[in-house]
Amino acid sequence: MASDHPSIAVAMEDDPQPLEAATLLSPSSSGPSFNSSSSPSSSTSTPSITSPWAAGLLISAEVVGTGILALPFFCSVITKPWGLSYLALNIGVNYYAGARLTQAASIVEQRHHVPPILDLLELSQLTTLPNLTLTIYYTNLILVMGSYLLTISTSFSSLLYPLTVPSSILTFLIVSILIALSLRLNSMAKLGKAPTYVSITTILVVVLLSLIGAKTTADQPPPTAISPFQIPGSLSGISFAVSSQKLLLNVRKSMDSSSKLKINEALFVALAMYGLFYVITILVAPSTVPPLLLNVLKDGSLMKRIAGLLLSVHLVISFTINNQCLCHSFSNKFNVPSSKVAFATCFFVWAVSNGIPFFEDLTSLIGALTTVPLTLALPVLYAMEAEQSDWNGLHGRMAKLIVFVSVIITVSGVLSSFWKINKDWTTTTTKANNYK
Length: 436
Fold this sequence. Notes:
By secondary structure, the chain is mainly α.
């Protein structure tokens, strides 16, 4: 979900036991995650994470994604001081929501005598909110994959500049190749966590190259007029980049029994890690920055070609794992062949990337429509239901406040995103894959 997010697919359960498979974010935000693929019986295998620091690093690697490439722009819309303040607030609320989520999972596991819960979807099946969670979750997956496809077309264009292939054709070719690749590769989970770290390394290098290039490039983009209607969308875009709950339970399940109780410490470590990097990125970025940070680099320059290549690697990994998990999930839950799910995914993802060919608008929409409810509102509702807490108590008042604010951000962010999408479709005169 980072960033993104970004972004954010999580493997779903097989009846009667959960099937551990590759998981990806975020709809982080954002970056890919790989756990050992296994049969149902493998859920009893020895976990590989033995310390909160290792778990925190993995959470950071899973969260940081394309959302960070939009952070400087969103903060420029609401000004850096307000952007940094809202970022800090999001980090605090994410920690509280994450702690409540793990508390809910622990209570549900004890009450129903089930093994450690794998993800939000599995937890939701033991609450009164399964259908709502399922709808938001799959909507998040499709939108995030659409964002990946849109950004891949931009990164390819940067790598192969000057590329004159129309965006609609380029995205169709890319998504067709990626879907075929996902079907050919039965599972990438056997690669372990290596792709996760490759992915975060590439995205961090892209950010560093962009920030360095921004300091050495004289022709920065001119300031653009900012409308107050953009503010809610920018807030939801920042929320998209920070979200950490979507994969939290998956990491918790991978920790050994002695470390599992320290999952909140791991979450704190993760939020401190990527939160600090986010702050540095925002502070170092120019005051006037394009929506996609990559585009601060000069077209055709060696630095931008390298950044485009690295960003493409990050996105291909993310897209492939998301698609594999989505196909696997639908196949198991709805008894639909993976090939049919893959072709349907190909169509919907292509439609999203071409229907909303504006990176910042799509990021804002994902954050408002899916990230905020999925990672802030639902976790506290799960905890209140699991604990059967008094709504007039401390946690009850906090839950009501978080849900209330989440609804405001969701509604205003969605309206702001659609307003901006309509505005961009009306005024843009550039091709979608060259949009800046």
